[in-house]
């Protein structure tokens, strides 16, 4: 049996930015390298001290792991694949796997820019990806009929967060060949994420999420490119939602941190308010336009009944211009927890216009009322866009009834 990991280098490109180590008592510590402190940037402002002090996590929430590094780990679907593989390969049960074991397993395959060395045994990664085979493998795993995981599915689908099955690949507008994305990708290719359906999802889940992305684009949320990919699964053809990754640009990797990682916020429970989201946006970006965009995202989530707006669904990306609010993601019709928004709006789980305007007033957003009307217009296009994307009549009318009910509060 392989020994558990007790020390890892945290890498950014070719540079070591720090070291993670586990003590004999199971406590995890992080220390920046002197070189990174003099030439690099703060990984997680106000969450991880940017100095030479040996530091533990501010909160034990992530099994003692620092929030920004916990963002490198998947949840839901990705953890399922990881746990099955580590049990199959090393005989480790889920409760025996440490956070450093998980980071070593991820190695260079994590979302964002961070890499972890030494990684677990390097495996051969195929250059090309067959989405049809991966989709069939997803169904096999979800059926629970096997404890083993098809190797390529485990590799391509083991890094993204979220409960729904998904894979990361590289796609091109000019070539039908789908690449793995874990090698140097050729010119013309970009990194994408493809979402499959869970067993509970309706047949038109991909079409619904694509329609939400289209509405979000019209609402001015700054969406990355999205698409519906036709994929043969057995004798039928499915249409899966795909979105270009904002943490990749060609072969460049971009650092990101979620609100869950910054605030040690448990994304499984309601624990934040949109005042926290806009406040963090203001502090990190120091840009009023970014704060307005966070307000626009909040308004969109409220008006479109996207109540699964938890702490991992908000992120910040570090780029050439410093910190920016990430493009919006995971936008779709959802009931949330107990029928209320997971992230509260000025203390309310089912707000009206007054609560949104309270937020606008708190952050001195003079364009608050105008933004609400612009988003309302985009959401009013749901029936037209849904038909264009092939959403079923049942889903179209079910969602439309709820959106109209919300709109009457505005």
Shape: globular
Counted up, domains total 3
Overall pLDDT confidence = 92
User: How many helices does DSSP assign?
Assistant: 14
Secondary structure tally: strands: 16
What Rg, in angstroms, do the CA atoms define?
Answer: 21 Å
The percent of residues in helical segments reads: 25-40%
If you had to describe this structure to a student in words, what would you say it looks like?
This protein has 410 residues and is α+β, with helices and mostly antiparallel strands. The N and C termini lie far apart (60 Å). It has 3 domains: 7-117, no CATH class; 131-248, no CATH class; 253-407. Strand 14 (315-319) and strand 15 form a beta hairpin. Helix content is 35%, strand content 19%. It is built from 14 helices and 16 strands. It is globular. Helix 7 packs across helix 13 (382-389), helix 9 (274-285) runs antiparallel to helix 10 (288-303) and helix 10 crosses helix 12 (368-380). The model has no long low-confidence stretch (mean pLDDT 92). The strands form 5 sheets. The chain has a 5-stranded antiparallel sheet with strand order 4-3-2-1-5. Strands 6-7-9-8 form a 4-stranded antiparallel sheet. It has helices at residues 34-39, 67-70, 77-90, 99-106, 131-143, 151-156, 205-218, 259-263, 274-285, 288-303, 353-362, 368-380, 382-389, 393-407, and strands spanning 7-12, 15-22, 28-32, 55-56, 114-117, 166-172, 189-195, 226-233, 236-244, 248-249, 252-253, 255-258, 272-273, 315-319, 322-325, 343-344.
In terms of topology, how is this protein built?
Blueprint: E1 7-12, E2 15-22, E3 28-32, H1 34-39, E4 55-56, H2 67-70, H3 77-90, H4 99-106, E5 114-117, H5 131-143, H6 151-156, E6 166-172, E7 189-195, H7 205-218, E8 226-233, E9 236-244, E10 248-249, E11 252-253, E12 255-258, H8 259-263, E13 272-273, H9 274-285, H10 288-303, E14 315-319, E15 322-325, E16 343-344, H11 353-362, H12 368-380, H13 382-389, H14 393-407
Parallel strand pairs: 13-16
Antiparallel strand pairs: 1-2, 1-5, 2-3, 3-4, 6-7, 7-9, 8-9, 10-11, 12-14, 14-15
Helix pairs in contact: 7-13, 9-10, 10-12, 13-14
